[in-house]
Design goal:
5 helices; 13% helix; 15-stranded antiparallel sheet; 17 strands
Length: 322
């Protein structure tokens, strides 16, 4: 599920510019009258076939101004499309901010080298300080449905809000520190419902440059394939991956066509690492069935996998710098 969480984070970042680019229209008395007294704001987003594309996201383990002295992680050629989203924003009387997102069907998310396009890109790659890149994940293609979801930024300064929203999670890895969300000033409570209808992942592939070099006998760029690779062209290398997971599905306990549900609470605590400083993510519950329709190693299928009655609850992660 870590992969899903990262993809969800990228989706949120990509959607943000739509709100910022909304046309500004002068409001006359009539419009002001219609606006005054409404309980919140509704934002509608229509994302077509072209969708939103991000060329590259680079995480640098250091300072951006001196990025060439650090290694980095690359997410490349991100595309999000086919999503009609209605978002509502309301402030509750208890001082909490409530964000609602409508049901979304057949949203597609892709990263890296999809169907031979963008062959010089990787879904996930590692780059050294010297600029050398190696590929970890060649491509990711995801289609999913999301049920109506609610995210609440809970004002914990209001007496009773922790109990009202059921925020009682704590972190205890057997040693100090022990942190409790109710001791903070803010917690984010998210209730999600989703179904992954198709997820394909290709790992341990090649970038175009690596494929060209591997298929070249002398490494001189003349296009001559060496004896051990006479059946392999540079194009087939870059389009392929050593490990492929095909037709992955994740759905609810009601079977295919039903949503799995996820509840999680996120909070932050200040102070040093020894004092418990960091961001905490607590999984309330997740239940569903995971299917992997096909597993390929070296281009040959080794079968399929189905994991039923998954029930994950009570796990808390603490994230901090080092």
């Amino acid at each position: 599920m870590k992969t899903f969480q990262k993809i969800a984070l990228v989706s949120a970042i990509a959607a943000a510019p739509f709100a910022a680019q909304a046309d500004l229209t002068p409001m006359d008395d009539s419009l002001m009258g219609n606006t005054t007294g409404q309980a919140g704001v509704t934002i509608e987003i229509d994302m077509g076939n072209a969708g939103v594309t991000i060329g590259e996201v680079e995480y640098v383990d250091g300072d951006l101004e001196t990025a060439n002295t650090y290694g980095s992680v690359l997410l490349q050629q991100i595309n999000i499309s086919e999503a009609d989203i209605t978002q509502t924003i309301d402030v509750d009387a208890d001082g909490s901010l409530v964000l609602g997102i409508s049901e979304i069907n057949n949203m597609t998310i892709s990263l890296g080298n999809i169907a031979g396009a963008n062959s010089d890109k990787s879904a996930l790659a590692l780059k050294s300080a010297a600029g050398e890149i190696t590929e970890v994940v060649n491509d990711i293609s995801l289609t999913m449905n999301m049920g109506a979801t609610t995210t609440t930024l809970v004002n914990l300064q209001e007496a009773g809000n922790a109990a009202k929203y059921g925020i009682t999670q704590s972190f205890d890895n057997g040693v100090d520190p022990v942190s409790n969300a109710a001791n903070g000033s803010l917690a984010i409570k998210a209730d999600l419902a989703f179904e992954i209808t198709d997820l394909d992942v290709g790992a341990f592939g090649y970038t175009q440059e690596q494929a060209d070099a591997r298929g070249d006998a002398a490494g001189n760029g003349d296009g001559v394939v060496d004896a051990g690779l006479e059946q392999i062209t540079a194009d087939s290398l870059v389009d392929g991956s050593a490990v492929k997971l095909n037709d992955i599905r994740f759905y609810g306990t009601g079977g295919r066509g039903t949503n799995a549900t996820v509840s999680q609470t996120i909070w932050a605590q200040g102070g040093t690492v020894a004092q418990g400083g960091g961001v905490y993510i607590s999984m309330g519950a997740i239940a569903g069935t995971l299917e992997v329709g096909g597993i390929e190693l070296g281009g040959a299928s080794i079968g399929a996998v189905k994991v039923s009655d998954i029930n994950l609850a009570g796990m808390t992660q603490r994230i901090y710098g080092h």
